[in-house]
Design goal:
Structural class of chain A: mainly alpha
Strand content of chain A: under 5%
CATH architecture of the largest domain in chain A: Orthogonal Bundle
Largest interface: A-B, 23 and 33 residues
Distance between the termini of chain A: 29 Å
Number of strands of chain B: 13
CATH superfamily of the largest domain in chain A: MetI-like
Number of domains of chain B: 1
Number of helices of chain B: 10
Strand order of the largest sheet of chain B: 7-8-9-3-10-11-13-12
Structural class of chain B: alpha/beta
Shape of chain B: globular
Number of helices of chain A: 14
Largest sheet of chain B: 8 strands, mixed
CATH superfamily of chain B: P-loop containing nucleotide triphosphate hydrolases
CATH class of chain B: Alpha Beta
Order of helices and strands of chain A: HHHHHHHHHHHHHH
Distance between the termini of chain B: 31 Å
Radius of gyration of chain B: 21 Å
Number of domains of chain A: 2
CATH topology of chain B: Rossmann fold
Radius of gyration of chain A: 25 Å
CATH architecture of chain B: 3-Layer(aba) Sandwich
Number of strands of chain A: 0
Oligomer: heterodimer
Largest sheet of chain A: none
Shape of chain A: flat
Helix content of chain B: 25-40%
CATH class of the largest domain in chain A: Mainly Alpha
Helix content of chain A: over 70%
Order of helices and strands of chain B: HEEEHEEEHEHHHEHEHEEHHEE
């Protein structure tokens, strides 16, 4: 198991290197001089040149890239052009908000999506099934900011249930979470429905019935876990989408998370902040997918065997010695 | 009176149709049989003859829709599973009562061991599950009993915490047999239990099933298309064709004195060691289409003894000697 985890973590290295190349290239090919953003327009050419030298902008690109990677490895994501703060500190400060919104959204989405999916599968072609299908498709097709604005106008402006924008206690997180949950709902619902429909037609479900098991327990004890395998892999991918979606949701709701941070940085051409934010999200995304991979091993015993191949060999050897 | 009590399975005039978009599939058309305690009945027939449908209706496991039970009565261990209700439509036992019977009074071994076990649960737990469902015992006792059952079917109890994919086909079938027998049912239905296994394992599994059946004095239905298996394991045999029993009798009746042209045809398709036969003679033609059964004898089109009288109507199952029934106009 440890070998498996280590292997997955080592796989992060080429992925991160690729991400850093793209992030770095982005800045290198973007027209405009970063120095313009940092220094006031009144700065002289000498001052600008000195600043360029200080930031290493005059070095050849490969040297700049190596320096960049070195800085990142030391945990130095650079200094924000606008606030002159350490970018990593700023990100870590904002990350909890994004984490709460995204994970809350995922949890709500998964719970709602899986229950709707299971219900639709059990009542295939019923009106609930059709309504669920059409409804979840509608939310998937609806752009995030439209959904956010509609939610605000209903729940904040009309009903005064939750604050519209800004951070005013835990209630501020409710609408963003719902927004993210609704966007991914159709995915979870449809995958759960089709996977569940497939599972409940399997022979082992019939075996469970032949044992005299009750229908409810057949669903919870036999069908759900098998149906969850494709759902789990989808969650990993969806979280990536939602981290990206956080940018819009946080901007609309005025939440000080990473999404808004990157959004602000883009309008201000604040390159270290953009780079740091994107890199950080990429790291989070990769770690989440490693966690999903590990959880897979627990959900699907057939995978566990290939992962634990070596320890199993040892077990068999021990058993044979015992028998001898 | 005593004889009455010995009957554990009684199926009467069972008619089951599947209503699909393409039309009505007449899967079972008036099947009746009784099985006594400790007796093994072989149901033999080609693919699509309706054998599994008969078994599933006894387990009350037919999918609704498309199934439509037209008529019939089924009684197992004195409990009426299917009985004539009002308006002529047969009624079924309540789902709750049936759940209590399945696995406890009546068990079934399914055809394909590769897919009949849940891939994400320990094999041992899958045996313990049925024990916990039907006996009032703690989880620990159920586990102990499950380990015992694993030993009975010849699998090391140390393998309790392993998954189905770690077992070979024959071993999976043993686990399934252990599940079916864990609560010592009165009736065991084995639906082609050895079709998916190779011949050497087949022999082992069959011997084990027969031994267990005799030890527990169970009534058993052996569904197969292999007459060799019937000869080895059964006491009585019913030849099924197009959802009807065409010949029914003891092993002696069927093997030594087969009467129905279809049974004769099946016998002609078995290679024999004693006779020097150049070619086996298969039953010509294809199985009657259950979507389009004729109003007369359904075997007419393939029968080599047919005559005009056969087209006059559907023959009845007639007793030609004590305990030997044939579904043919020509046998009297």
């Amino acid at each position: 198991m440890i070998r498996f985890i280590v292997r997955r973590v080592l796989l992060m290295i080429p992925i991160m290197l690729g991400v850093m190349i793209i992030i770095f290239a982005l800045r290198a090919v973007t027209p405009g001089d970063p120095v313009d953003q940092i220094l006031p327009t009144t700065a002289t050419e000498e001052e600008r040149e000195a600043k360029r030298e200080e930031l290493g902008l005059n070095d050849p690109l490969p040297v700049q890239f190596v320096n960049y990677v070195g800085d990142v490895l030391r945990g130095d994501f650079g200094e924000s052009y606008t606030t002159h703060q350490n970018v990593l500190d700023e990100i870590l400060q904002r990350f909890p908000y994004t984490l709460i919104v995204c994970f809350g959204g995922v949890v709500i989405g998964v719970i709602l999506g899986v229950s709707l999916g299971v219900y639709s599968a059990l009542h295939q072609y019923s009106w609930v099934d059709s309504v669920t299908l059409v409804g979840s498709m509608f939310f998937a097709a609806c752009p995030g900011f439209v959904l956010a604005l509609v939610l605000i106008s209903i729940f904040s402006v009309q009903l005064h249930l939750v604050p519209a924008v800004g951070l005013q206690g835990w209630t501020s997180f409710i609408l963003p979470m719902i927004c993210i949950a609704l966007a991914s709902l159709s995915n979870y619902t449809r995958i759960t429905r089709s996977s569940f429909l497939e599972v409940i037609r399997q022979d082992y479900i019939r075996t469970a019935r032949a044992k005299g098991q009750t229908e409810n327990k057949i669903i919870t004890k036999h069908a759900l876990r098998n149906a969850f395998i494709p759902i789990a892999s989808n969650i990993g991918v969806q979280i990536g989408n939602q981290l990206g979606g956080a940018l819009i949701v946080e901007t609309v709701f005025g939440l000080p998370g990473i999404g808004k941070y990157i959004g602000d940085a883009i309008t201000a051409r604040n390159f270290p902040a953009i780079q740091g934010g994107v890199l950080f999200l990429a790291i989070v995304f990769t770690i989440i997918n490693i966690l999903v991979d590990i959880s897979f091993v627990y959900i699907n015993p057939r995978l566990r065997d290939s992962v634990l191949k070596n320890s199993r060999k040892i077990k068999i050897k021990q058993r044979m010695q015992k028998a001898a | 009176m005593n004889q009455e009590n010995n009957t554990v399975v009684s199926v009467k005039d069972l008619v089951v149709h599947y209503e699909t978009e393409e039309g009505i599939v007449e899967a079972v058309n008036g099947v009746s049989f009784d099985i006594k305690k400790g007796e093994v009945l072989g149901l033999v027939g080609e693919t699509g003859a309706g054998k599994t449908t008969i078994a599933l209706s006894m387990m009350n496991l037919l999918p609704f829709p498309p199934t439509n039970i037209i008529e019939g009565e089924i009684e197992i261990c004195g409990e009426k599973i299917l009985y004539p209700g009002k308006e002529g439509k047969p009624e079924m036992i309540s789902a709750k009562k049936m759940q209590k019977m399945r696995g406890n009074n009546i068990s079934m071994i399914f055809q394909d061991p590769m897919t009949a076990l849940n891939p994400t649960r320990y094999v041992g737990d899958q045996i313990a599950e049925v024990i916990q469902l039907h006996t009032k015992c703690s989880k620990k006792e159920a586990v102990e009993k499950a380990c015992e059952m694993m030993e009975v079917v010849g699998i090391l109890p140390e393998r309790y915490k392993e998954y189905p994919h770690q077992f070979s086909g024959g071993m999976k079938q043993r686990i399934i047999i252990a599940i079916a027998l864990a609560c010592e049912p009165d009736v065991l239905i084995a639906d082609e239990p050895t079709t998916a296994l190779d011949v050497t394992i087949q022999a082992q599994v069959l011997k084990m099933m027969k031994d267990l059946q005799q030890k527990k004095d169970m009534a058993m239905i052996m569904i197969t298309h292999d007459l060799g298996i019937v000869a080895e394991t059964c006491d009585k045999c019913a030849i099924v064709y197009a959802g009807e029993i065409v010949e029914y009798g003891t092993l002696e009746h069927i093997f030594d004195n087969p009467k129905h042209p279809y049974t004769l045809g099946l016998m002609g398709a078995i290679p024999s060691l004693d006779k020097d036969v150049r070619r086996l003679s298969p039953v010509s033609g294809l199985v009657a289409d259950p979507m389009d059964l004729p109003p007369y004898c359904s075997f007419y089109d393939r029968c080599d003894k047919r005559c005009d009288a056969c087209k006059q109507g559907d023959p009845k199952l007639v007793e030609i000697e004590p305990g030997h029934f044939v579904h043919c106009f020509q046998c009297k």
